[in-house]
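Format notes (please read before filing issues)

Several people have asked whether sequences and structure tokens are stored in separate files. They are not. Every record keeps both together, in the order shown below: the sequence lines, then the token lines. Line labels are part of the format and must not be stripped during preprocessing.
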Amino acid sequence: MFRFKQFTICQDRTPMKVGTDGVLLGAWANLEEAATILDIGTGTGLIALMAAQRNPTAEIDALEIEAAACEQARENIASSPWPQRVRVYLQALQNYHPDKLYDSIVCNPPFFVDSTPAPDQGRSLARHTHSLTHPELIEHVQRLLSPGGNFCVILPVIEAQQFVSYAEQFYLFPYRITYILPTPDKAPKRWLMEFRRNLSETKENELIIELSRHRYSPDYIDLTRAFYLYF
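Then the structure lines:
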């Protein structure tokens, strides 16, 4: 169980647990102006719940293909302050055809492209791109995104660089990129990326997680303060 300031995540039946990547994306994504939000691969429901906390009026839909994770996400949402605004569907993105478009789409996606799959099938689905390749993800985001909408994602560096190239083939362009550094003396390990349909100059910055062991940077504290109990 993982307790946040306004909600609690139970995760005993979910292959992928609460982690820094999901919290970063849920706190960083541009969600405040969206009337409709889609969370692809919701897992525990973490990012969908963060979206509900940050945007008090949006309708939020979440997709999950692993049955146990889907059920646990539904339970986490049912026990949250926002059960009426978040819906979880046991559904693959490729087969999802709603009667609306989304102003914001978020995804903490599978990112291992060429590595050996995890022995656990659920964990493998969550971590590897076999069930949803990055070009497929972008293709369906392009299909579901409203004309003025945004798509936010987090990926390791090499996969992120490839992802930008894939996205441009579907006329989605990087509007904002934040390079995530574990500590000041280390290279970026993740990219947070926001894509839009219009081509413009990319806004770039860096975010350091820790100044030293368990000493978090002011920027990381500011970004996640609304969620973590200890900030």
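For reference, the curators noted about this record: Helices lie at 20-28, 46-54, 67-78, 121-127, 134-144, 157-169, 218-224. Confidence is low (pLDDT under 50) at residues 114-118, 120-128.
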